[in-house]
Task: structure prediction
Amino acid sequence: MTQEYFNYINGKWQVSRAGRTFEDLNPANKTDIIGRFPRSDASDVDAAVQAARVHYPRWHRVPAPRRAEIMFRAAEIMVRRKDELARAMTREMGKVLQEASGDVQEAIDMTYYIAGEGRRLFGQTTPSELPDKFAMSVRVPIGVAAAITPWNFPLAIPTWKLIPALVAGNTVVFKPAEDTPLMAQRLVEILLEAGLPEGVLNLVQGIGEEAGVALVAHPDVKVVSFTGSSETGREVAKVCAEHYKKVALEMGGKNPIIVMDDADLDLALEGAVWGAFGTTGQRCTATSRLIVHRAVRREFTDRFVERAQQLRLGDGLLPTTDVGPLINEAQLRRVHSYTEIARQEGAKILTGGYIYTEGDCAKGLFYAPTIFAEVTPDMRIAQEEIFGPCPAIMEVGSLEEAIDVANSTTYGLSSAIYTRDVNKAFIALRELEAGITYVNSSTIGAEVHLPFGGVKHTGNGHREGSQTVLDVFTEWKTLYIDYSGRLQKAQIDVG
Ligand code: ADP
Result:
């Protein structure tokens, strides 16, 4: 019997109003059905938004340190349940257990960190230009916040949005990715167990084009936080513009590692393998381009191919597995189509390039680690986000050329350079067009207390993580208190 799960709206677990459902499958074994979830439509979304709207006045008056205490308790529950959550995550979306544990840990870190903000949420005070007048600014919540999340970090990314939104005093409607509804269900259960009052957080499961679209367009949603593809993000932003809605977008990447001729090649290889093939290349910060200096290109390429060929594909729950499956059939087909595109564009496929069906992998959605070489910046495989284990190697002759190539895509999330020359490192830090730049480390590994986000088509100026996420989920309110007992006119009563 397939387990059935529900939406959580206005304090009640409930089926979708139309009674429709969708199935959640294990991508390592498509016959393993994880559960059946509500396929919500606009009427479910409306009920969730109304609940959030009704409960907003009460929630935003709860003192922020009290709101945050609930988050501390939620973090503690996650600590206790870390192993079980990680195993469920691997089963639901495929990444290997060690990485799934990292995802849960990131959720724990974020929840503790933002819970601490409950006793900060600092504003500013500054002297007034007039006598007997006090001036300050405070953060205020916005109202009903919508969180729309992807499947690749199914616990961490929801905490990046839900926890700051709630600590700041907003009520939330949460529409998680249709590929990872179970992790969303678990997070909501944990927050309820930690003491979140009913109606404050509402979970609407479903498909992006149905529940997601309805949520973004709902007039009572005041702020939308979205992580997903750049194409979808642009659609979300357009709808938000129609409604004068605040929107924070975290979107795609085509993240480069530059390997200079003076790099520690062992270290660079470790970073490249981890960045390109970790999470099967399905991270927004995954390393998808290797921009390698001519002098080391051959050695780097040979060793990189050798490493890729040693990776063992399989179910992420098995200790022998290095690389898990892709998330779904559509993604498997899409990734494979890029191998064809690479061929047509004249790139070399040094390894991989096929759907992997050895042994038990035939039951799942596996793609052999693939390396494209002799790639030039104008090729689609050098420009487009593939979201699979398919990095492109590009050769350059200087730091300047490496930076030009690195900056030649529309994306700007993460970037990295391997060099032992401090001057080159600082030039790269200054010149790379990206929200994040690493020196002598891979393109992945964001820490929760630093800003996370990208430039160009990767973002729209907001940053998650750190205290900067509070700018997404609060408005600034400026307060003037005049205790002079007379009308004082700013800019006019001078001298
Ligand atoms: P990915 O390629 O990572 O799956 P998507 O952008 O397709 O990224 O999806 C990210 C999230 O956005 C998912 O929760 C998905 O259901 C949702 N979504 C997809 N399309 C829309 C849309 N048009 N409006 C709102 N949400 C959407």
Observations:
- The longest strand covers residues 29-38.
- Residues 148-150, 175-178, 208-209, 212-213, 216, 228-229, 232, 235-236 surround adenosine-5'-diphosphate (CB under 6 Å).
